[in-house]
Write a structure and sequence with these properties.
Length: 896
């Protein structure tokens, strides 16, 4: 794979100086808001803050409108992106000025979003005026994380909500706020995070009472409520938003202090899932000196140390090598470079902190080299080259929910051949060493193999019922080698199934809800659930989550011992991924390998697993085509719009082919011909425009379209299945939801074949801005595609939403009224209303756990007058109430 080149060196600034931040601050200072400095949301003002949003502020700044702050433009962009987000609402923010409303993420957007969320909870839970709804808010290490938390919690406290926060704005992990929200059944939980996105991107993950991210329908309702607020400004000339005083007792760190930053809850949960005595004993026997944990300057150090201390493992983790532990918003320059990682062209680049990003480097005079560019930034080159052969690095991210592993190996022909055969890419560190990166598609295979052995032993001991069905939940972008692994275990007589979903951990959580709902509805009966392609899977009457994971780095395992939330509900597993859990599992795996062979050899272990099970898709390749990066998009909205239009055109074309194929409206031969024409057209356009060299553009002509056997719609993407020369392979195409980015994932045996096919799907942007005649002359395709692809994309979203809500892959707009009515009993009920004494129940649990006294003072009046709260609820359209499952008159009656 990348064995053809030497170590790649990226041009970058001094690794121990904040050079990227200095560069960005200079660029932003040169493009300051035209209205000058303006603390639009005056957080420093003492006491209750009344923020008056005027009609003039909605529009753009100019000589005739000096009060213009472009709020409308920002909100429209928010409304466009929000329903597409599968990993929180993320976009660019000015690291220099949180009040710069030219950026999508800004102080006013956050105040409006927070107010809209508070109103939505009042509608969905319908407990009436004055009820102390509880929420929890944590954040990671972004530039304005603390400011955004303050805006949200003070806005919600102004509505009478109780907001549980970490003491002193200590950054924390997404799994912590998710677990606290799930365990205590809070109707709303937050994590201020953009995961491993670039440093100038901010984000917000919003979670319901299950501790899981909102479904699309809930996000759409949020957008409609925010639009209602903007309409109120247009109609009335202004809207008053209220932020409680900073000293409002409803904003409290007491719960987190008493529960040791949430670790008391997480410890209890983990002892019911992964952290049983078998794995704890294994971790205690770890030889830790060969292990390093890379925190990427995020929240990992704090949360990991606290958790391992709770589990009695400090003596082990103190001897582990910790990397990048200081919490820094610039990630210590991780992912920052002064050149394009693919071309070497001089430019300021921030790739974010995803160490598994793969880029194909164009090397003059020799073949391209595939490598991991993030791991060639900051101090990585020197730090990794200094590690002895055999050392293992566990890489997490900013909010400590994702994991990848790498190992330092000898740079010799035998090692390179083994890695190439396994599909494990690597960076060359020196003539003697290389860094093999075991992306989640590789490493998680080893983790769930270990968990399978543990659960099978429990079943043999009688600790689990014999009719328990082990369930592997994974996304379709995760390796099909796991499907092969499951089939082999089934052939051995084990009760085990695999369920594939669209991308996003919320999709995996959705399957858990559906299984749990069926178990409650029909206890003791087999449960059927549909995967992303509409195939029904029987998980039996006693399902247990063996592993739930996605290729981007998130994995959890299921509950094996009795565990209930504070209201007495049982469930299969938590709803968010956790790198703390996966790092614990990783330490157990490494200890197991050390005990067996003296040294943990990840490549050899993977090779043994692949050989044993006859895996015929060992190679997996991912290409990401970033059409425009966050900084460039924030500076040039029109360029971002052009990039997004290209994304929609291409995705819409693939969707149209897949949907028409499923209907029998186009034949396989016709699909092959159309794809061949699309790629041929793209090759010509690239050469004519000089975008890429003729050799690279030639790849478009080399795609094995004649080997195509099938094309499938997968909910959020399209999968292309190939067969030729006695081999099978596949390419999954899906665009990013929020970013102008095209992604393609290839799975098979032939590296060269996969490289060409996967690359072509990722880098086809329809540069000619028109589709070939073989596509446009087919009425069935144009009927799906429309004028620009958006018609097909909208259909895809409706079908994906239907899968989330009903568990079936249909377009409700194509159903008759009777068919839609028959769907209703399948609707997933995620409604929730906290008990009247919810606050007292939480306090009682804290006392019963021996953690102290938990009391929140509710005597201080809420900041927003109740008559204004009711007026806003009254302004929200009836259809929003219907979408949220409530009658408007009933809600208004309780809010008097």
């Amino acid at each position: 794979m990348n064995s053809r080149g030497d170590a790649i060196t990226l041009k970058r600034g001094p690794c121990h100086e904040p050079w990227w931040e200095h560069e960005m601050r200079g660029l932003l200072a040169g493009n300051a808001p035209p209205w000058g400095a303006d603390e639009i949301v005056p957080l420093g003002q003492p006491g209750v803050v009344r923020l008056r949003l005027t009609k003039a502020m909605l529009d753009d700044f100019g000589e005739e409108n000096p009060d213009g702050r472009s709020v409308r433009r920002s909100c429209e962009k928010f409304a466009e992106l929000a329903p597409l987000a599968i990993a929180g609402l993320r976009h660019a923010v000015s690291i220099l000025d949180v009040h710069d409303t030219r950026f999508v993420k800004n102080s006013v957007e956050r105040a409006l979003t927070s107010l809209a969320l508070g109103l939505m909870v009042k509608i969905t839970c319908n407990k009436g005026a004055g009820f102390p709804y509880q929420t929890t808010y944590g954040h990671e290490v972004r530039y304005h994380s603390a400011v955004f938390q303050e805006i949200t919690t003070r806005t919600l406290a102004g509505l009478g909500f109780v907001c549980h926060i970490m003491p002193d704005h200590i950054p924390t992990a997404i799994w912590n706020t998710s677990t606290m929200g799930k365990f205590f059944c809070f109707p709303l939980s937050f994590c201020g995070t953009a995961s491993h996105s670039e440093s100038m991107v901010d984000g917000l993950k919003m979670m319901d009472s299950e501790g899981s991210q909102f479904l699309v329908e809930r996000v759409e309702a949020l957008v409609e409520i925010q639009r209602t607020l903007i309409r109120k400004v247009d109609q009335d000339g202004y809207l008053d938003l209220y932020l409680s005083a900073r000293t409002d007792p409803r904003i409290s760190d007491l719960l987190y202090r008493l529960t040791h930053h949430g670790m008391s809850v997480y410890e209890a949960y983990q002892r019911s899932t992964a952290a049983d005595e078998t794995l704890l004993e294994r971790v205690r026997g770890l030889q830790p000196s060969v292990v390093h944990i890379d925190c990427c300057h995020g929240t990992g150090r704090q949360t990991l140390k606290e958790f391992f201390a709770k589990m009695g493992l400090s003596q082990v983790t103190e001897r582990i090598g910790w990397m990048h532990v200081e919490e820094r918003a610039d990630f210590g320059n991780i992912g920052k470079a002064l050149e394009d990682p693919a071309t070497g062209q001089e430019k300021l680049v921030d790739m974010g902190a995803d160490v598994t990003q793969v880029v194909e480097r164009q090397c003059p005079g020799r073949p391209p080299v595939m490598y991991f560019p993030v791991l060639r930034t900051a101090d990585y080159p020197g730090a990794l080259a200094a590690m002895p052969v055999g050392h293992i690095v566990l890489h997490t991210d900013m909010d400590n929910d994702r994991l990848a592993a790498s190992q330092i190996l000898a740079n010799d022909p035998e090692t390179r051949r083994q890695l190439d055969g396994l599909g494990v890419l690597y960076n060359v560190l020196s003539a003697e060493k290389l860094q093999a990166v075991f992306v989640p598609n590789k490493f998680f295979h080893l983790l769930h193999e270990m968990n399978f052995e543990r659960l099978t032993a429990l079943k043999e001991k009688g600790a689990l019922a014999r009719d328990t069905t082990f369930v592997v939940l994974k996304t379709l972008a995760s390796t099909p080698a796991v499907d092969t692994w499951v089939a082999k275990r089934q052939a051995e007589g084990h009760r085990i199934v695999v369920i594939n979903t669209a991308v996003g951990f919320a999709k995996l959580a959705n399957v858990m809800y559906r299984i749990e709902a069926e178990m409650r509805r029909n206890p003791g009966e087999d449960v059927l659930v549909n995967d992303a392609t509409g195939t029904a899977i029987n998980v039996g009457a006693r399902p247990l989550i063996l592993a739930a994971w996605e290729e981007s780095g998130g994995i959890i395992v299921g509950i094996t011992r009795p565990f209930k939330d504070v209201l007495g509900n049982t469930f299969l597993a938590q709803r968010e991924k956790s790198a703390t859990e996966s790092i614990f599992l990783s330490l157990a795996l490494i200890a197991k390998l050390q005990r067996a062979g003296g040294q943990a050899d990840l490549a050899e272990s993977l090779s043994e697993l692949y050989t044993r099970d006859g895996v015929d898709t060992p190679i997996d390749i991912r290409f990401e085509n970033v059409l425009i990066r966050a900084r460039e998009a924030s500076q040039d909205p029109e360029a971002e719009a052009v990039a997004n239009r290209s994304k929609v055109r291409v995705f819409g074309a693939y969707l149209s082919l897949a949907l028409a194929s499923a209907r029998g409206e186009v034949t396989l031969a016709e699909t092959r011909a159309i794809l061949g024409d699309m790629f041929g057209q793209e090759a010509d356009a690239h050469v004519s425009a000089g975008v890429r060299g003729s050799a690279l553009a030639q790849r478009f002509r080399e795609v094995a379209v004649e080997a195509l056997q099938a094309i499938q719609f997968t909910g959020d993407g399209v999968r292309f299945l190939f067969r030729g020369d006695g081999r099978e392979w596949s390419v999954l195409f899906r665009p990013s939801g929020t970013d102008a980015k095209l992604k393609a994932y290839g799975f098979g045996q032939d590296t060269d074949r996969l490289t060409v096919d996967t690359w072509a799907f990722a880098f086809n942007v329809n540069l000619a801005q028109e589709l070939p005649g073989s596509f446009t002359t087919r009425a069935c395709l144009i009927d799906l595609w429309g004028n620009d692809g958006s018609k097909a994309v909208e259909k895809q979203r409706r079908m994906q939403t239907a899968w989330e809500e009903y568990g079936v892959l249909v377009d409700p707009q194509e159903l008759t009224a009777q068919e839609r009515e028959r769907l209703e009993p399948r609707r997933l009920d995620r409604s929730f209303a906290p008990p009247d004494d919810h606050l007292e129940i939480v306090g009682q649990w804290v006392r019963d756990a021996g953690l102290g006294e938990f009391v929140i003072d509710l005597d201080e009046p809420q900041a927003m007058p109740q008559e204004q709260v009711r007026a806003l609820l009254e302004a929200i359209p009836e259809e929003v109430y219907q979408k949220l499952g409530r009658a408007k008159d009933e809600v208004l009656a309780k809010e008097r």
